Amino acid sequence: MKPEPRRLIPSVEKVLSQVGATDLPRPVVVAMVRRQLAAIRASKRPITLEQAVTGVKSAISDLRQARIQPVINGTGIIIHTNLGRSPLAGDAVNALTAIASHYNNLEYGLTSGDRGGRAAYLEHNLAILCGAESATVVNNCAAALVLVLRHFIGGARKEVIISRGELVQIGGGFRISEILEASGAKLREVGSTNKTALADYSRAISKQTAMILKVHRSNFYMGGFVDSPPTESLADLARKKRVPLVEDLGSGATIATETIDGLEHEPTPAQTLKCGVDLVCFSGDKLLGGPQSGIVAGKARLVAALKREPLFRALRCDKLILAALQVTVDLQLSNPAVIPMTAMLREPVESLQARALMMQNALAGVPAKIEVRTGKSQVGGGTLPKSAIQSITLDVIPARLALPALADKLRRGIPPVIGYISGGRFRIDLRTVFPRQDESLLAAIRTALG
Ligand SMILES: *Cc1c(COP(=O)(O)O)cnc(C)c1O
What we know:
Layout: H1 12-19, H2 26-43, H3 49-65, E1 72-73, H4 90-100, E2 108-109, E3 114-115, H5 120-129, E4 134-138, H6 141-152, E5 159-163, H7 176-182, E6 186-190, H8 198-204, E7 209-215, H9 231-240, E8 245-250, H10 269-274, E9 279-283, E10 294-298, H11 300-308, H12 310-315, H13 319-334, H14 340-346, H15 349-362, E11 368-377, E12 389-398, H16 403-411, E13 417-418, E14 420-422, E15 425-429, H17 438-449
Parallel strand pairs: 1-13, 5-6, 5-7, 7-8, 8-9
Antiparallel strand pairs: 2-3, 4-10, 9-10, 11-12, 12-15, 14-15
Helix pairs in contact: 1-3, 2-3, 4-13, 5-13
The site of pyridoxal-5'-phosphate (PLP) has 15 residues, from α6 and β8.
């Protein structure tokens, strides 16, 4: 057998010693070195030790970047799904630490000394926040929808009636129609894209009907020749025909969004249930400002039945989520202003402007033009698509770097900074930057330009 030309390929030990200390676990670094050397061997091209080490270092750097870590959100998109949606309130974070590091009464009744109901306190207060008889929580809104669909579909009743104007896609890979089909439902589309009448729903109801689903058009809007029946009329029809009516609200605003400059009205769970809808579901990490979760609220009888579904066990939340959500719900009831989501939405332009000017001054002397401009923040996360909130941006026009290169350097910094390129400038919207991050932002800009 012909010996491999090993002398052309540096040894694992050699490369490892040259790569030096990293903050990744050693077995991970060893695996990366082996992978790199295997790739070199497969390519059959000789390589120097330096090249091999550079290759491994760059692979380590890419892997380290993929670690979940805090970033500075300069996009101006407040609920940014790619950036983790809602940051939690300080009190919710404290609760996470306390519950995570101790035993707790997750399923233990402290008054009875017996097995207790999971999330009983949270569900109690959530129901009050939603103006509902009852409420419960699962992993996200998609899970809530699947649970509801699976519950109402049974025997001959497989059809879910939905308006053609509401067969929406939410973010990547979430189409209402696909969720319905994956849950075993048969889609019974009614009306047209822009107009659906009560009679369309009425005609579609039969012995095969499992439920009527309304989906809030949360991430887009339609104007012009558009019509759909008021929720009250649809609820009347559903009640008369004894068919459950469920609405997917998506963002689940519990505050009056129209009281915030630049925002339109978003239907609240309480308002929707008051119209006669049997159940609503919405995300806990959008406008509610909590951790990823899906809330179902409405008729007590139905919520109790959902909790008896075997599927509920598979979709239920972990104690950490319940702990953070419990605090968030209490804050929504007592002091919503301290929830970061609400605070960001309400932050006056003047205070953003003051911070921007301070930062502009602090950046005097960097090899770039720094400008303070007005911008428009968005709510994002598939909510309030029409809304645009006045904001302030810190714009960087680098003297020696191309804009994509600056963006790349900022993304690779510690902490990473995510902004956007527009009109020949790199823009950082300060509405989504926490004031406590201002110093790190300045340092990151200096490093990237230097
Ligand atoms: C965001 C959204 C969902 C998905 O919520 P997740 O909590 O991410 O599963 C479902 N329906 C609507 C209308 C939404 O806006």
